[in-house]
Write a structure and sequence with these properties.
Elements: H1 7-17, H2 20-35, E1 38-39, H3 47-51, E2 59-63, H4 88-101, H5 112-115, E3 119-123, E4 128-129, H6 141-155, E5 160-164, H7 165-169, E6 181-185, H8 190-193, H9 203-213
Parallel strand pairs: 2-3, 2-5, 5-6
Antiparallel strand pairs: 1-4
Length: 221
């Protein structure tokens, strides 16, 4: 596993790569990819950092695991590769954007366009074995991605964190809320959304209002 992330990120996270837990994590991931089908493809494991430059970072969305179906995951949370059916949670995200911003439903579930505008689409666990949700949890990824969140909190100002669902909401302890903005709601999964915990949160218009109040360009969702 090559840690192929841009220099601005690497400079901020450099100490992590020499720690025992990360060395063990690299060994685990290499073995897993050698012996099993895993997602995303090796070159896309750190795609969230490649598409969203540290200097341009404006918004953070936190997911849990990559999709574990064939050719779905592209290294960005909630996002799928072009020409792949849009998963249920992402359908509900797009429906909320439709209602909130009166934008048309997208033709693709590939969220690279968000990432390029400064949205870090960060899964807590960056790899997964095919058809086995959560199979790479508790191997060190969470420790690394928690450090990513803490690093953003310490080194940036005015970042909007979108925490959807119980798992993501726990990450608020890593965020300095005196200098960042945190919006929370239920998860966009059908189970949560159909119970009324997702639709109507208006996170996309709220995010853009916050960005504009800081003199930043809003996100074209």
């Amino acid at each position: 596993m090559n840690v192929n992330i841009p220099k601005a990120w690497k400079d901020k996270l450099n100490e992590e790569f020499d720690k025992d837990y990360f060395i063990d994590l690299v060994a685990f991931v290499k073995t897993a990819y050698k012996n099993h089908t895993c997602y995303p493809k090796g070159k896309a494991i750190f795609a969230a950092f490649e598409y969203c430059d540290f200097e341009d970072l404006k918004v953070v969305i936190i997911g849990q695991d990559p999709y574990h179906g064939a050719n779905q995951a592209n290294g960005l949370c909630f996002s799928v590769q072009d020409d792949i059916a849009i998963p249920p949670s992402l359908i509900n995200i797009f429906k909320e954007i439709e209602q909130d911003l009166k934008l048309p439903f997208p033709k693709t579930g590939n969220l690279e366009r968000w990432a390029k505008q400064g949205v870090l689409l960060l899964n807590a666990t960056l790899t997964v074995q095919a058809h086995e949700a959560g199979s790479h949890q508790k191997q060190g990824w969470e420790k690394f991605t928690d450090q990513v969140i803490s690093t953003i909190s310490e080194n940036k100002e005015g970042v909007v964190f979108l925490l959807w669902g119980g798992f993501a909401k726990k990450k608020i302890k890593l965020i300095d809320t005196s200098k960042h903005y945190v919006l929370t709601s239920g998860h966009p999964s059908p189970l949560s959304a159909n119970r009324g915990y997702w639709f109507g949160n208006k996170h996309f218009s709220e995010t853009n209002k916050l960005l504009e109040s800081l003199g930043k360009t809003p996100i074209d969702w």
